[in-house]
Design brief:
The chain contains 15 helices and 11 strands. It is of the alpha/beta class. It has 2 domains: 185 residues, HypD, alpha/beta domain 1 (Rossmann fold, 3-Layer(aba) Sandwich); 151 residues, Rossmann fold. It starts with 10 loop residues before the first helix and ends in a 5-residue tail after the last helix.
Length: 377
């Protein structure tokens, strides 16, 4: 597929939107209300806001911004665990940069680093092994977060650490899985979803068939989408076609990357190192989600930082703003939160939705002027 720059050549986007408009009207007429589409992935949320698509698309389409940004759903309890490790004198704490500013109960990793904690930003978990080799007198901890997208890289590094016999390397793991999350949303009485734009990166790992339960059991259509604006518009068109034809299926717009059965090598590593969907996991703003956790398996328990350092288990999460969860399930738009742009901004985030560039509040805050000035097709 040829990628389109909508700023230099907007006509393909406009043409695709004009093409789907009759379907949007037909669906809304059938439902008696606007069509509610959830984009699961934070990357899709970012694209939607950056290019002003909610304003360009027919008014019969409304978006529900899903909990698919792993940074945005990091619970304060896990950040507190990370800070407890990072402030130990014998620990070098390593993390991806987007986790630095997520607020915990009192501080963030960025704040304790400014106070002298040895917190280092890495681009790959493999770099943490290099640090462990270079610093034998220190315990090197890698903060592993994310859905199935990042889980394979963590798994491969743990396998390597086991083979090479590292004694000063461990992982603070908060990996979570996508399917229990979608089931939990669909089981809620207060969430209205007519169809899903499925996550592209996660799907590259788990494949199309992992979503069958969404169509077969819940009777909701899902279209896996790429991240270009035209990808998303085409995916919406495919969703509307299913709704007009009154059918529910799993379809793949992102065929250039996502295959039916996913990436088998990545899946093998994940299932070797992690106990997939084996325990409830804590989510920021959403509380416990059944079977969404993927703890390190007993075979690799030696590399589990929570066990190595005997960290206390936290099982309650109360959203610090009181509104993040409502934004996350689509009951509120970001600007409807009374903290938005006031006590909560990208410079001083109150909630994690304002921290990550893929968070709905951060994206809306950054791109709202573009949306308000966008041309309606």
């Amino acid at each position: 597929m040829k990628l389109i720059d909508p700023f230099r050549d907007p006509e393909p986007i406009k043409s695709a939107i004009r093409h789907l408009q009759p379907k949007a009207i037909s669906c809304a007429d059938q439902l008696g209300r606007p069509v509610q589409i959830m984009e699961v992935c934070g990357g899709h949320t970012h694209t939607l806001f950056k290019f002003g698509l909610p304003e360009l698309l027919p008014k019969q389409i409304e978006f529900v911004h899903g909990p698919g940004c792993p940074v945005c759903v990091l619970p304060r309890a896990v950040i507190d665990q990370a800070i407890a490790l990072a402030t130990r004198a014998d620990v070098i704490f390593t993390t991806f940069g987007d986790a630095l500013r997520v607020p915990g109960s009192e501080h963030s990793l960025q704040a304790v680093r400014a106070q002298g904690a040895d917190v280092r930003v890495l681009y790959s978990p493999a770099d943490a092994l290099v640090l462990a080799q270079q610093n034998p007198s220190k315990q090197v901890v890698f903060f592993a977060i994310g859905f199935e997208t990042t889980m394979p890289s963590t798994a491969l590094v743990i396998q390597q650490a086991a083979k090479q016999g590292f004694e000063n390397f461990s992982v603070l793991s908060h990996h979570i899985t996508i399917m229990p999350t979608l089931r939990a949303l669909l089981d809620r009485d207060d969430v209205l979803i007519d169809g899903f734009i499925g996550p592209g990166h996660v799907s590259a790992i788990i494949g199309e068939q992992a979503y069958r339960d969404i169509a077969d059991h819940y009777q909701k259509p899902l279209v896996i989408s790429g991240f270009e604006p035209l990808d998303i518009v085409q995916s919406i068109d495919m969703l509307l076609t299913q709704l007009v034809e009154q059918r529910c299926d799993i379809e793949n717009q992102y065929t250039r990357v996502v295959k039916s059965k996913g990436n088998q090598a990545a899946l093998n590593a994940m299932y070797d190192v992690f106990a997939i969907d084996s325990e409830d996991a804590l989510w920021r703003g959403l509380g416990q989600i059944k079977d969404s956790g993927a703890p390190i398996s007993n075979a690799y328990a030696h590399f589990d930082a929570a066990k190595r350092f005997a960290l206390p288990v936290q099982n309650q999460e109360i959203d610090c703003s009181g509104y993040c969860d409502q934004v996350m399930i689509g009951k509120l738009k970001p600007s409807q939160c009374p903290h938005f742009g006031k006590s909560c901004s990208p410079q001083q985030p109150m909630g994690a939705l304002m921290v990550s560039t893929e968070g709905a509040c951060s994206a809306y805050y950054r791109y709202r002027p573009l949306m308000e000035n966008s041309e309606v097709v």
